[in-house]
Amino acid sequence: MNSHWLAPDMTMSAADYLALLDAALAFKQRYPAQTGAALQGKTIYFLFYNASLRTRSSFQTGLARMGGNAIVLDPHHAIYTPALPEAEIPYTTERIADVARVLSSYGDAIAIRMYGEPAGWVYGAAHRHLEAFARSSRVPVINMECDRFHPCQALADMMTLRERLGDLAGRRLCISWAYSGSWHKPVAVPQSLLLAAAKAGMDITLAHPASFGLDPEVMDRARQVAGQTGARVRVTHDFLDGVNGAQAVYAKSWCCLAHLPTRHGDPVDERAMQRAFERHRDWRVDADVMRLSGTDAGYLHCLPADRGQEVTDEVIDGASSWVFQQAANRLHAQNAVMARLLNPGCLA
User: Fold this and answer.
1) Same domain assignment for residues 91 and 231
2) What is the DSSP letter of 91?
C-alpha cells in the first residue's frame, strides 16, 4: 500500500483503484452510524495555500465525525511558510523538510492544498512541494489538490458516476474544457478524472480547443491504462462533437499550460492566456448542449462553477445536474481516503 495519497490516479493499478472505489461506496452506506470510531484519536494537519470550501469543510467534518482531530495551519500567516531550499527567506519561511519532520512527529497525517500563485504558476512546482513533504514525513501526506492532480475530487466523481450509471465499463464520458472569465483554474481536475475513468474502462472523449491540451505525460499514462482496461480515449477540438451522445458531460475551465512560466519568478503571459480564452466563449453548457448529449445525460462540475460562462443556471440547477451529488460525495471519498491511510481495517 502506498503510504501517501499524492498522485494515485497515476500510480495506483486499475484493480486497486476500483477496489478503493467499491470500498468508498460501501463505507458511505455505513457513515456515520457505524464509523464513529474509525479514526478515533487520529490527528491530521491541514495546510491550505489556496481558498477552499468543499475540500476544507468535507475533510474536517468527516474527520471529526469519525473521532479524529483536524488542526488547520495557515501557511501564509500563522506559521513560517514551508519552502524549498531555493525559495527560503530568513525568518519568513521554514524548509519543507523541517516542517514535515516536526508535524509527522506530532500527528498522523499531513494534508496539503497548493496550486497556482503560491507556486508561482510554474506547472508542476506545487506538486514538487507535496513530494518534498512526502520525502521527509514519517506519516501519510494527502494531496488535497495541486497543479497536476486532484485525486480526492476524482474519487468523488467516480463514486457519482457509479451511483448514476452503474457499471462504468463502456459508458460514454465527455471531459470538456469550458469558457470562463478567469484563466486561473489548474488542469488538476480533468487530469485526475481522465486517469480514473480510464481505470474504470470508460469510453472517454476529451474535448478542448487545440491550445488547451493536457500534460503529455498524463495523456500517455491514460492511453496506457486504457490499453489495459479496454477503455477508449479520444481527443477532439470540436465542443459539440465531444458532447454528442455522451452519457455524462463534465465541462469546466482550465488554464493553457503553454502560457504558464517555466521558471519561478517569471510572469504568466496573461495577455496570450486571455486571448486564448476569449476565442472560445461559445464553449458553454446550456440546455441545447445537454439535449445533444442525450435525454438521460448528466452534467458534472467540481464547483465552484462560473455560472453563465461555463454553464447556464438552467443546466446546473436542473434535472440533469449531478453536481451537488458530486459535492456531497467529496465527504465520503475523503473519508475512505483517510480510513485507507490511517485505519485500513475499517474499510473492510
Assistant:
1) no
2) T
Q: Are 14 and 121 within one domain?
A: yes
Q: Which residues pair with 308 in a beta bridge?
A: none
DSSP assignment of 208-231:
--GGG---HHHHHHHHHHHHHHT-
Distance CA 175, CA 242 (A): 8
Tell whether 318 and 189 lie within a shared domain: yes
Let me know: does 320 contact 297? Beta carbons within 8 Å: yes
Residues 32-48: tens digit of each pLDDT: 999 999 999 999 999 99
Range(s) of the domain holding residue 230: 152-327
Which helix (H) or strand (E) segment is 237 a member of? Answer: none
Q: Does residue 304 have a cis peptide bond before it, meaning omega lies within 30 degrees of 0?
A: yes
In a domain, 1, yes or no: no
CATH number at residue 300: 3.40.50.1370
Q: What are phi and psi of 6, to 5 degrees?
A: -100, -55
pLDDT of residue 1: 40
Look at residue 82 and tell me whether its pLDDT is greater than 80.
yes
- Asked if 40 and 137 sit in the same domain, the reply is yes
Instruction: Report the chain's mean pLDDT, rounded to a whole number.
Output: 97
Report the sign of the C-alpha dihedral through residues 346, 324, 7, 57, in that order: negative
